[in-house]
Write a sequence for this structure.
């Protein structure tokens, strides 16, 4: 008997290790394979039993459910996991192997298409590799949505004795866990993507900057790097090609601002995590002053499937200039939270009401914050907005890392606006005045509004404009998005408090 149980952090937090102990005690002869999570967090721990080549799911499992799981009589039987609606409706490209394979088995990885893309890339020139990424339409999945191929082209064309690939794994936004799930569930795809990037732009060294709050991801990825070196996937002769690429893991101390690429580079160099002025761009003067590609985990982990199946295959998915798939992370007050990978173009309402099943509280949805703590609060009236970078920008929002936090109708939106300013004040690196001082003044101004000071409303608007236009990075520049969206779409929450004060 072969049984699959996730070793993903979310599954562990929900009791996966106790279930594994119970399985080992009840069926010592069974082969227990630890995997990543399928992304259906409301069903974790999800136990899968393989029967005649089909994996049957049971969840959310508890130790007391083990006897019924083993004999197939459990009331928590879900049927074939691949036939579940959540799984069937996805377009899993980046996450195709997550939850399916043993994350640390290179043979499993290759049996499911792994290294096919790298082998193809090794037969190409650097410029051909860059052109393939351009043709795919891949854009940065970490925030701004900048075209990945353009960034690679800049580094490729730069003349320097050393170039670097830096993976930004400092996943600090609320409602985001795709990077962690990928690193814990399929680390070799990130390693393969970084190797392709390095060979494409002429970089022989890479770093993954990983937040210290992710101990399981650090452990899994570190072990995967060791295996990759031992098997010739990394080193001075990648897969016998004569080309070199190696990489290391570096832990950050947990500063939110280090998710911004220049702050990350300072921290990686052993300096204080403070935003750098641009220009120069990191693509020209990045890590240690050398040309550097800085990409998010999902961006780099998507590169292998582009080279495995071809740029056109990937570009055929999506909407407008948003090509390929988006890894939606659904969280907050929601009935069915988890990770769902689909082509760009799905509407916000379909994500929240259909996939997410509405609120966990059963009350009406009031707002959804998309893009982390700096994202706009989208009201129900905006639920027809399709998931696409330009489409969301037109609607006054941003996709960012595609994390969605759902709120019901009991939420005080003035309080959420205040939280955004307070968050910025706490997390600011202090480099620029609009962010460092503006966020503190923002908290004070919102407190005045809460006390019924109507004159503070235009002041808050002016302050947000100053922060948006004058901040050095997105921390101060994007904080106005949640503040102004709360004020614009939920004016009653601000007026009600004013009336109460009167």
């Amino acid at each position: 008997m072969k049984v699959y149980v996730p070793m993903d952090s979310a599954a562990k937090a929900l009791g996966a290790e106790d279930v594994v102990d119970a399985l080992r005690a009840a069926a010592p002869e069974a082969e227990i394979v630890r995997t990543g999570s399928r992304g259906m967090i409301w069903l974790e721990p999800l136990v899968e039993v393989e029967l005649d080549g089909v994996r049957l799911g049971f969840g959310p499992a508890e130790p007391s459910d083990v006897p019924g799981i083993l004999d197939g009589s459990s009331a928590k039987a879900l049927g074939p996991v691949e036939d579940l609606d959540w799984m069937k409706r996805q377009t899993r490209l980046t996450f195709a192997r997550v939850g399916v394979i043993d994350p640390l088995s290179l043979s499993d990885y290759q049996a499911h298409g792994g290294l096919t893309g790298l082998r193809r890339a090794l037969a190409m020139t650097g410029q051909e590799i860059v052109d393939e990424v351009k043709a795919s339409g891949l854009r940065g999945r970490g925030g701004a949505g900048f075209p990945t191929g353009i960034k690679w082209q800049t580094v490729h064309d730069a003349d320097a004795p050393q170039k670097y690939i830096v993976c930004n794994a400092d996943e600090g936004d609320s409602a985001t866990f795709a990077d962690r799930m990928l690193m814990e569930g399929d680390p070799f795809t990130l390693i393969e993507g970084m190797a392709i990037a390095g060979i494409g732009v002429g970089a022989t060294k890479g770093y993954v900057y990983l937040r210290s709050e992710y101990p399981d991801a650090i452990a899994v990825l570190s072990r995967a790097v060791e295996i990759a070196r031992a098997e010739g996937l990394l080193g001075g002769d990648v897969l016998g090609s004569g080309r070199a690429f190696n990489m290391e893991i570096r832990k950050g101390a947990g500063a939110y601002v280090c998710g911004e690429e220049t702050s990350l580079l300072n921290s990686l160099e052993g300096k204080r995590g403070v935003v750098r002025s641009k220009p120069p761009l990191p693509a020209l003067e990045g890590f240690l002053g050398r040309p550097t590609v800085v990409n998010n985990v999902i961006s780099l982990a998507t590169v292998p499937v582009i080279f495995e199946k071809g740029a056109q295959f990937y570009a055929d998915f999506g909407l407008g200039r948003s090509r390929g798939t988006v890894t939606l992370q659904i969280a907050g007050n929601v009935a069915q939270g988890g990770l769902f990978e689909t082509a760009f173009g799905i509407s916000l309402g379909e994500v929240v009401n259909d996939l997410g099943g509405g609120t966990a509280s059963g009350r009406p949805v009031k707002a959804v914050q998309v893009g982390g703590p700096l994202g706009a609060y989208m009201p129900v009236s905006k639920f027809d907005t399709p998931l696409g970078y330009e489409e969301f920008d037109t609607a006054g929002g941003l996709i960012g890392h595609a994390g969605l936090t759902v709120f019901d109708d009991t939420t005080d939106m003035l309080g959420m606006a205040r939280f955004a300013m307070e968050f910025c004040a706490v997390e600011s690196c202090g480099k620029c005045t609009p962010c460092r001082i503006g966020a503190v003044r923002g908290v004070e101004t919102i407190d005045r509004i809460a006390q019924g000071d109507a004159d503070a409303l235009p002041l808050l608007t002016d302050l947000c404009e100053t922060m948006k236009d004058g901040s050095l990075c997105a921390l101060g520049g994007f904080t106005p998005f949640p503040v102004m969206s709360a004020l614009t779409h939920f004016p009653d929450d601000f007026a009600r408090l004013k009336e109460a004060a009167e």
Remarks:
- The CA atoms of residues 72 and 79 lie 10 Å apart.
- The chain has four domains: 2-88, 106-315, 318-408, 413-501.
